[in-house]
Amino acid sequence: MDHPIPADLKARFPDFATVADAIVQAALSEAALQIGDDWASEADARLGRLLLAAHVLTLDGQGSGAEAAAAAAGGFRRMRSGALELERPDTADAGPGALDSTGYGRRFLELMRRNVPAVTVV
Questions:
Q1: Is 2 exposed, middle or buried (0-12, 13-18, 19+ CB in 10 A)?
Q2: Backbone dihedral angles phi then psi of residue 96, each to the nearest 5 degrees
Q3: Buried b (16+ CB within 10 A) or exposed e, 27-46
Q4: Taking the CB of residue 119, how many other CB atoms lie within 10 A of it?
Q5: pLDDT band at 36, cuts 50/70/90?
Q6: Helix, strand, or coil here: 90?
Q7: Inter-axis angle of helices 42-59 and 21-34, to 10 degrees?
């Protein structure tokens, strides 16, 4: 299975270009723990690892994106700058690290639903 390296993540998501390779590698290693050989396609598994690592980095406040900046500042519920006002839905019930808390995580969820079958317990 293809295991992306920090340069791959930085090329795909330039917001992380200035993050140290060791930090990016740690996020990629964490993502690899959740994405195994059971995914439908190797290309989806690779993209999944990149998206999940980007999600983790964002939650850690790494990178230059707005979501990472908000996470580094402790998160926000409502933010106003001039005429622009942003409000996030309350994700407190979702728990820390909830995949729907970043754009990368939401994209990963879509990809995961396509590749990991739902489990039915009888």
A1: exposed
A2: -65, 140
A3: bbeebbeebeeebeeeebbb
A4: 5
A5: confident
A6: coil
A7: 120
Q: Which pair of structure tokens corresponds to residue 108?
A: 């990963």
The two structure tokens encoding residue 18 = 């200035």
The CA–CA distances, whole Å, from 20 to 25, 44, 85, 100, 102 equal 9, 25, 32, 25, 21
Q: Which of 78, 76, 46, 74 is nearest to 60 (CA)?
A: 74
Reading the block at residue 69, the tokens are: 């900046």
Helix H, strand E, coil C: the string for 11-25 is HHCHHHCCCCHHHHH
Cα 71 to Cα 7, 104, 112, 116, distances in angstroms: 23, 14, 24, 29
pLDDT tens for each residue of 19-30: 999 999 999 999
